[in-house]
């Protein structure tokens, strides 16, 4: 029996032929992948909303007005009304609802982290998203076998230090490939 490899703390990189508009040219950070399915946050799809929109709903006034301009990302097609924050792990900070993704990254869904961000007391690095990408039992594995995805180790620098428009190429570049030159197979024999 083959041992299952879970893709926690991996980038899931959409192949050029993946036409689903939810995932076309996307890079998704895999936050949880286990025997029940998978959950990830797409890191290269800024939406139309800014943090200001969330702060207004929460009746928060940020200390630094520039914080208002930070884009909210489209994290995926599931629960698009729910916020997810990927952030650097500072060992001295605890948030109400946090899951460790790696030794350096966490995923938080509680409003206390947004309040801290507004007060300039949040994590050093963060990405706020609405919604997530989810797969049921065996679904992601089937899509990988069908050549819809590549995967590679997460690099925090790509999430927090690489311009959004370059993240798809940068993530694939970790594998030593120029993803824009990959083509789909002509047929199956």
Précis, in short:
The protein is 19% helix and 32% strand.
Could you characterize what this model shows?
The protein has 189 residues and is α+β, with helices and mostly antiparallel strands. It has one domain (10-181): VC0467-like, CATH 3.40.1740. Helix content is 19%, strand content 32%. The protein is built from five helices and ten strands. Strands 1, 2, 3, 4, 5, 6, 7, 8, 9 and 10 form a ten-stranded mixed beta sheet that branches. Strand 7 and strand 8 form a beta hairpin. The mean pLDDT is 90.
| Structural category | alpha+beta
- Total number of distinct structural domains: 1
Please tell me what the overall shape is.
globular
Kindly state the mean pLDDT as a whole number? 90
The total count of strands amounts to 10
Q: How is the biggest beta sheet arranged? A: 10 strands, mixed
Share in helix = 10-25%
From the 3D structure, determine the CATH topology. Answer: VC0467-like
Tell me the name of the CATH homologous superfamily: VC0467-like
**Straight-line N-to-C gap:** 26 Å
Q: What is the architecture at the second tier of CATH?
A: 3-Layer(aba) Sandwich
- What's the tally of helices? 5
């Amino acid at each position: 029996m083959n041992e299952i490899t879970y893709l926690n703390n991996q980038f899931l990189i959409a192949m050029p032929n993946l036409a689903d508009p939810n995932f076309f040219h996307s890079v998704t950070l895999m936050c949880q992948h286990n025997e029940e399915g998978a959950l990830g946050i797409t890191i290269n799809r800024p939406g139309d909303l800014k943090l200001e929109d969330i702060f207004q709903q929460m009746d928060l006034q940020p200390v630094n007005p520039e914080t208002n301009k930070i884009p909210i990302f489209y994290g995926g097609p599931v629960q698009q009304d729910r916020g997810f924050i990927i952030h650097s792990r500072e060992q001295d900070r605890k948030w109400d609802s946090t899951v460790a993704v790696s030794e350096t990254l966490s995923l938080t869904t509680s409003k206390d982290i947004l309040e801290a961000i507004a007060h300039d007391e949040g994590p050093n690095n963060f990405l706020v998203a609405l919604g997530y990408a989810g797969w049921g039992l065996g679904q992601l594995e089937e899509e990988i076998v069908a050549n819809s995805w590549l995967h590679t180790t997460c690099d925090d620098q790509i999430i927090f230090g690489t311009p959004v428009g370059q993240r798809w190429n940068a993530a694939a570049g970790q594998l030593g490939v120029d993803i824009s030159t990959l083509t789909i197979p002509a047929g199956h024999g």
